Amino acid sequence: MQNLRVVLASRPQGPAAVENFRLESAPMPVPREGEALVRNLWLTLDPYMRGRMSDAKSYVAGVGLGEVMVGQTVGEVLESRDPGLHPGDKVVTSLGWQLHGVDRAAALERIEPGGVPLSYYLGVLGMPGYTAYFGLKDVGQPKPGETVVVSAASGAVGSIVGQLAKIWGCRVVGIAGGKAKCDYVVNELGFDACVDYKAGNLYRDLKAACPDGVDVNFENVAGIVLDTLLRLMNRNSRIVLCGLVSDYSATEPYGYKMIRSVLINRITLRGIIVFDWHARYGEALHALSGYLKEGRIRYRESVLDGLDQAPRGLVELLAGGNFGKQLVRLA
Amino acid sequence: MQNLRVVLASRPQGPAAVENFRLESAPMPVPREGEALVRNLWLTLDPYMRGRMSDAKSYVAGVGLGEVMVGQTVGEVLESRDPGLHPGDKVVTSLGWQLHGVDRAAALERIEPGGVPLSYYLGVLGMPGYTAYFGLKDVGQPKPGETVVVSAASGAVGSIVGQLAKIWGCRVVGIAGGKAKCDYVVNELGFDACVDYKAGNLYRDLKAACPDGVDVNFENVAGIVLDTLLRLMNRNSRIVLCGLVSDYSATEPYGYKMIRSVLINRITLRGIIVFDWHARYGEALHALSGYLKEGRIRYRESVLDGLDQAPRGLVELLAGGNFGKQLVRLA
Questions:
Q1: What number of other Cβ atoms are within 10 A of residue A205's Cβ?
Q2: Distance between CA B154 and CA B302 in Å, rounded?
């Protein structure tokens, strides 16, 4: 029996393309002492993956040419050579874009899905959910009545940020591309308003949607969106810099003109990575599970079928083409 | 007897010029109930004044055309119609660029100069000192052994920031323009190193001076200096954005290309204004007075004689021509 995997075939200049990837078969991996063999069931696609396709310095090194693309999966243990894992256990893994993989048991996080779909552990109950929870709570520090603006509002992180901000008593304004996404953000997710950045009047529309200015910006897109928001931020406001989607595919970095506002308005701008809260993941899981069960958080997935669809899925995700958490069903 | 004052005659496009000011005489002001008449002895010149010459939004409104230029002074009470002040009292004022002025007694801060020159209350024991103290301590949060980089290192704020960072156990690197200033920063102020931004190799020279990267940047200049420092900031580092001297006189705002580093390195970038620590000025005064008396802080002043010299003094200050705290002796 062979394994199937997607490797990085070439590095993109500018936007990623499906040609940057290659689907190939490989020998089935075999676990050694302390390791387990996992069959992947779900793969999550996320904007940060564009960064790993480059060899520029980032949090961690990029993916090497010919190497399996990185990514989280949910899978099932097929064979274990560690006493802590047993066949049939469900685990969250970092095995990447492949149908099977082997890792140390310590790197496989066993989950106890209590009536929740397995795929949720790659979204609202996984990294995107934790990112939203800690970034908003610890760095955004929203107070009841404040205005919170979230970009990529229909995305995996943004949709949860906005709903948490509503639960915590804020006025919430999303930014998304196109009327369909904006309607979804307001009508299904319950944001107070959503600005369509593709409509061409970002500053005017944001100003109208935020009559009291902006107290917290949870920023997933950056570039012109962040630069425009800097003109609307209130005194002592906070910007949670979580992503630079607009930058990942650009050949030239954006030149921010409104940094002056950081000084004038005593803004705190802070970059976040969810790993820094690793010791507190349990707190986020508990809170988010509770809100889900109470029906206070709505969560939408966008599912592609088959590993061979992953390259197209990532390319479209980076181009802003998806709704909700982008997943690939592998089995 | 007439008063003498400097008013804003026109708004600069680009760098400020002496022609933007006008020296004029005016009737001597007369205090009403609750007010006092002050004879100004010292006027301080500071980079923020460039901002007040514009009508763009800033912390506060700009100076109106024909109005007295804003600024702090130290003066002596000549006549008081408030029981809290008496002739001969020394006060820190916001009376601006004039020889005499009237203000509410509550707006005049009485000082008790204990063997310290009066002018120090406009520098190391005034706003610049407090800015350095709170910005570095509360926002920079330097830890012993960390590397602190200070731009405009020979200036009123920068020179104190660097010396405080040394007292608090850090490696301190200054940035200044020209060899004379850099020598002063290292040899007289005791910084570990100083990089001459005019030498044309800012990134390379900073990298050499900061072999372990940068943990705290106390930023007075911004523009290309800040953008370059963003390439050298360590993970979880802090940037105290205190001034934008490079921006004050620019006709086009600088376009920052390295904001990506804020995300990758989880940098906290925060704008500060000393007014926000008003309730804790006493703490800074106590600490700075102590360090001065112990000889642990060296402090240099640059003095011009006569109110008519103030416009030239500000223009040269903004062009980076001064050493230490720029003052104008008025009497």
A1: 19
A2: 11
Amino acid B79 reads: E
For CA atoms A259, A263, A268, A272, the dihedral sign is positive
Query: Chain B interface, mutation test: which of A225, A239, A242, A259, most B Cβ atoms within 10 Å?
Result: A259
The pLDDT of residue A55: 80
pLDDT digits (tens, 9 = 90+) for B201-251: 999 999 999 999 999 999 999 999 999 999 999 999 999 999 988 877 677
Identify any residues that bridge with A4 across adjacent strands, giving them in sequence order: A25
- Could you tell me the end-to-end alpha-carbon distance of chain B, in angstroms, rounded to an integer? 16
Between CA B154 and CA B164, with CA B159 as vertex, the angle to 5 degrees is: 160
Calpha distance A193→A316 (Å, rounded): 25
Contact B270 A271 (CB under 8 A): no
Q: How many residues does chain A have?
A: 331
Domains along the sequence of chain B with CATH: 2-123+299-329 (3.90.180.10), 127-275 (3.40.50.720)
What pLDDT was estimated at residue B187?
A: 97
Residues of chain A with C-beta less than 8 angstroms from the C-beta of B273: 263, 266
Angle between helices B156-167 and B127-134 (to 10 degrees): 40
**Residue range B60-89, pLDDT digits in tens:** 678 999 999 999 999 999 999 999 999 999
Own/partner contacts of B248-252, CB < 8 Å, gap of 24 or more, are B248/B47, B248/B50, B248/B51, B248/B318, B249/B12, B249/B14, B249/B15, B249/B16, B249/B50, B249/B318, B250/B14, B250/B223, B251/B13, B251/B14
- Which residues of chain A have a CB within 8 Å of the CB of B267? 270-271
Low-confidence residues in chain A, pLDDT < 70: 56-60, 249
CB-closest option in A247, A265, A269 to B260:
A247
d(CA B320, CA A12): 44
Identify which of A58, A242, A260 has the shortest CB distance to residue B247: A260
Contact B140/B236 with Cβ under 8 angstroms? Answer: no
A interface residues, B as partner, C-beta within 8 Å: 57-59, 222, 226, 241-244, 247, 253-260, 262-273, 276
> By a Cβ cutoff of 8 Å, what residues of chain B touch chain A?
57-59, 222, 226, 241-244, 247, 253-260, 262-273, 276
Q: Per-residue DSSP letters for A119-159? A: GGGGTTTSHHHHHHHHIIIIII---TT-EEEEESTTSHHHH
pTM of the model: 0.90
The 3 state secondary structure assigned to chain B is CEEEEEEECCCCCCCCCHHHEEEEEEECCCCCCCEEEEEEEEEECCCHHHHHCCCCCCCCCCCCCCCECCCCEEEEEEEECCCCCCCCCEEEECCCCECEEEEEHHHCEECCCCCCCHHHHHCCCCHHHHHHHHHHHHHHCCCCCCEEEEECCCCHHHHHHHHHHHHCCCEEEEEECCHHHHHHHHHHCCCCEEEEHHHCCHHHHHHHHCCCCEEEEEECCCCHHHHHHCCCEEEEEEEEECCCHHHHCCCCCCCECCCHHHHHCCCEEEECCHHHHHHHHHHHHHHHHHHHHCCCCCCCEEEEECHHHHHHHHHHHHCCCCCCEEEEECC
**Distance, CA of A166 to CA of A173 (rounded, Å):** 10
